[in-house]
Design goal:
Largest sheet: none
Distance between the termini: 28 Å
Oligomer: single chain
Strand content: under 5%
Low-confidence stretches: none
Radius of gyration: 24 Å
Number of strands: 0
Order of helices and strands: HHHHHHHHHHHHHHH
Helix content: 55-70%
Structural class: mainly alpha
């Protein structure tokens, strides 16, 4: 499932577009929010498909080598450990993946150069060499190989980053999050699983879906009130010169802290400080942390933060 960390980022990105737009149709931007989330799930399925396509490309090369006019002994007796990888073959047969691909018409068919380059990157890696030459072979070794390919080769490929950014603006910065989803998915596979093995859903549960929707709407409805709070605690700054993204991150953080009684204050604060490190200026995290600390103290004094559970206020 898509983590709440990424859901927060998606909400902030759409809120940014909403506040910068002359169009104030909240329903339109809500639709954009869920479209963006669904696109991330598309990428999750596409990357699972990617390792299958690379395996199929390797199998085609083996078959072509056998059909040479004068094949070498290596051509006739190739090492097939990669194309026989049980985890990749489980992914290839998986009913949920294949159904999603069919219904949403997604594929890498227009990117054969990507398949070829990633195949070459894999076979030239020490990960591949170690895996193919290991005297011991097991399902766990198949699993670890696939994880290593995603964690060390696919996620670091500049070519795939370039292609997915060209395919969808909603995939900018998504690949690391999606690869982490894939690694969790692969770790859940067992040798006795079949094509009906479930994969991650878009949301962990309805609560997560409601969370991101409520965060979006409540940040908009609390906008003027939260602006006043932020302005009060940034009196030594020219409010208009504070980076818009900094203000938006603080507004969203305040909204979550006040409006979601089951989420500990510390969790919300840490989440938005972390987001600011990647989506705002270099010094923003320290600035945002200081301002939010003061605002939280003020809200607690006024009993405007109510948490349902012991230890949730800290």
């Amino acid at each position: 499932m898509i983590s709440r960390h990424l859901l927060r980022i998606k909400a902030i990105m759409i809120l940014y577009a909403y506040f910068k737009s002359d169009d104030k149709s909240q329903k339109k931007f809500e639709n954009d929010l869920f479209f963006s989330i669904n696109k991330t799930y598309d990428l999750y399925i596409l990357l699972l498909l990617l390792i299958v396509d690379i395996k199929n490309y390797a199998e085609e090369k083996i078959n072509l080598a056998k059909q040479k006019r004068i094949p070498t002994p290596q051509d006739l007796n190739p090492n097939t450990r990669f194309i026989d990888n049980k985890v990749i073959n489980l992914l290839e047969k998986n009913k949920s993946i294949n159904s999603y691909i069919l219904n949403n018409k997604i594929s890498w068919v227009e990117n054969p150069e990507l398949i070829k380059q990633l195949y070459n990157n894999i076979i030239q890696s020490s990960i591949y060499e170690t895996y193919m030459n290991d005297e011991q072979h097991s399902f766990d070794k198949d699993k670890q190989f696939v994880i290593d390919v995603f964690a060390n080769i696919i996620v670091n490929s500049e070519f795939i980053s370039q292609i997915i950014e060209e395919k969808s603006i909603y995939w900018n910065d998504d690949i690391e999050f999606v690869v982490s989803m894939i690694i969790k998915t692969i770790n859940g596979f067992k040798e006795n699983h079949d094509e009906y093995k479930s994969i991650m859903s878009i949301f962990k549960n309805e609560e997560d879906k409601d969370f991101v929707k409520k965060l979006f709407y409540k940040t908009i409805s609390n906008h003027e009130k939260n602006k006043i709070f932020i302005n009060e605690f940034t009196k030594n700054w020219d409010f208009e010169r504070i980076a818009f993204m900094d203000k938006l991150i603080m507004e969203t953080a305040i909204t979550e802290i006040v409006e979601f009684p089951s989420i500990p204050v510390k969790v919300s604060l840490n989440e938005y400080i972390e987001i600011s490190k990647f989506y705002s200026t270099d010094k923003s995290s320290v600035f945002i942390n200081g301002v939010l600390d003061k605002i939280i103290s003020k809200l607690q004094e006024e009993n405007k933060i109510v948490k349902a559970g012991r230890g949730l206020m800290q």
